[in-house]
Write a structure and sequence with these properties.
With 487 residues, the protein is an alpha/beta fold. The strands form 5 sheets. The chain has a 7-stranded parallel sheet, with helices on both faces. The chain has a 6-stranded antiparallel sheet with strand order 14-19-18-17-16-15, covered by helices on one side.
């Protein structure tokens, strides 16, 4: 059957595509930028692509009339005042376009909302359910609690906290109960309800077999990793302080930290087990889901990560339009060095930059810059990389976003997502000049007024050392024989 996925570039959508293809379905993917999908997906030649930003109805390609079912996997991770209105508008635009097709089902992945006094984000999820229910196509809703899988926001936050802090003083929301579910089981349910007559016009709670507090999940993580961890609950930490605590300790954004803290006041426990009759499934226990996530990390085979989402408030969805670095009104610092040895080794070093590998020179300075960025509400340096062995447009590398990663042209182009009085690009390229291989490294800055120019010139002494030292190390560095694990 022909199935549409709205949110195909997202954490869940990216993983659902191969599941549906394996079942023999024709998959249609709605994405905001086809270029990004082509660059990062192994399935770009096996699916039909439609372009459209659901917040801008006029940008949406017409859906094929013969679509039989549609997945709506679009969620906002923003905490701005209008996020609920934007989520509703996105769903309304989706319904308007889908109503022109012959679709017989909409499937929406929502959050468990059995508690009273719901958080703003859970209220928004419920409202989106209501919007989708007004479509001509009947709606199936799967409501999930915390999703555990390599690259999921919940897993990465638990991981950050537990790996980095032997002793934790934590807010009282860590005692809120939830029912975590492995990403493999979420995908199983999403596929299982597809045009399943028993699931049409129904709403189901889905969860794993364990009911745990967030504190128990962190201690469970420590047990699997054979770490000794001690957790002390402090009851008087306000939601705002809790959000800042989570923001500074983990790789999450402040917007997501706010959302999580706000939502953690609500228990997300399965109350209705009707899904067991419709899609019988033995779900993974929490620790089993952790083990599976660790296996994916060790194999450098993380399919998708929450950190690569573009709805975090740092970058517009048309970010790839910035792939051409501006020439006018900019300031540059260039380093060009001859490559005496194997230029392939240098290219591998370039494509592995950031994350565990670091920045090859004066990493402590990069660390301080990341800390300063966090202090002013930026992304900081803790996001790392989704994979140590591959990089694609749209991926994050610490506080940079990848615009271009082309091994054929031997070019990596990064765009800064840190807080700056201007815009910044960092480009690495290997060029052939009269038979000689040259490493070209260019830092470009487009300042916002006088403050931007003062910032650039105040940083220039550091640039003189950092960028030249980094270029030299890119040429000299040899990859260790022992493979690096993802952090």
């Amino acid at each position: 059957m022909k199935v549409l996925i709205a949110g195909a570039n997202g954490y869940i959508g990216t993983r659902l595509i191969p599941v549906l293809l394996e079942q023999g379905h024709d998959v249609v993917c709605l994405v905001r930028d086809k270029r990004r999908f082509h660059e990062q997906s192994d399935y770009s030649d096996k699916v039909q692509l439609l372009k459209g930003d659901l917040l801008h109805k006029e940008s949406i390609d017409e859906f094929p009339a013969d679509i039989e079912a549609a997945y709506y996997l679009v969620h906002s991770m923003s905490q701005n005042e209008d996020f609920a209105k934007l989520e509703a508008s996105s769903a309304e635009n989706f319904v308007e376009v889908l109503n022109k097709t012959k679709a017989r089902q909409i499937i929406y992945l929502s959050g468990i909302t059995n508690d009273t006094n719901l958080s703003k984000h859970l209220q928004s999820r419920r409202h989106v359910e209501d919007v989708l229910a007004d479509a001509k196509s009947p709606l199936t809703v799967l409501r999930a609690s915390i999703i555990i899988g390599s690259g999921s926001s919940s897993f990465e936050i638990i991981r950050d906290l537990t790996e980095k802090l032997p002793l934790m003083t934590v807010p009282r929301w860590v005692n809120t109960k939830c029912q975590p579910i492995g990403i493999r089981d979420v995908l199983g349910y999403l596929e299982g309800v597809l045009l399943n007559e028993q699931a049409i016009s129904k709403t189901f709670d889905i969860g794993g077999p364990d009911i745990l507090t967030f504190k128990e999940m962190m201690l469970g993580y420590a047990k699997v990793r054979k770490l000794k961890r001690y957790i002390i609950t402090i009851p008087f930490l306000s939601p705002k302080i809790s959000s800042y605590w989570l923001y500074f300790v983990t790789s999450t954004s402040y917007q997501l930290a706010q959302s999580l803290v706000d939502s953690m006041k609500n228990e997300t426990i399965v109350k209705d087990h009707a899904i067991d009759e419709v899609v019988p499934r033995k779900c993974l226990h929490y620790e089993e889901a952790l083990e599976l996530a660790f296996n994916k990390i060790e194999q450098n085979s993380i399919v998708s990560s929450w950190k690569d989402a573009l709805n975090m408030g740092y970058l517009n969805s048309d970010f790839m339009d910035q792939i051409k670095v501006p020439q006018n009104g900019t300031l540059e610092y260039k380093v060009k060095l001859s490559i005496p040895g194997d230029d392939q080794q240098v290219l591998d070093n370039i494509m592995a930059i950031g994350g565990n590998r670091g920045w090859y020179y004066w990493d402590w300075i990069w660390g301080i810059r990341g800390m300063l960025d966090k202090m002013v509400g930026g992304v900081g340096l803790r996001r790392g990389r989704t994979s140590n062995v591959s990089v694609s447009p749209g991926d994050v590398i610490d506080f940079w976003r990848v615009l271009l990663a082309d091994k054929k042209t031997k070019r990596l182009l990064l765009y800064a997502e840190m807080k700056l009085p201007g815009e910044a690009w960092l480009e690495f390229k290997i060029i052939d000049r009269n038979g000689k291989k040259i490493l070209s490294q260019i830092a470009t800055f487009r300042p916002n007024g006088l403050v931007g120019r003062l910032y650039w010139y105040s940083m220039l002494p550091f640039h003189l050392f950092i960028f030249k030292g980094m270029a030299k190390q890119l040429i000299a560095f040899k990859i260790p024989k022992v493979s690096l694990s993802h952090s």
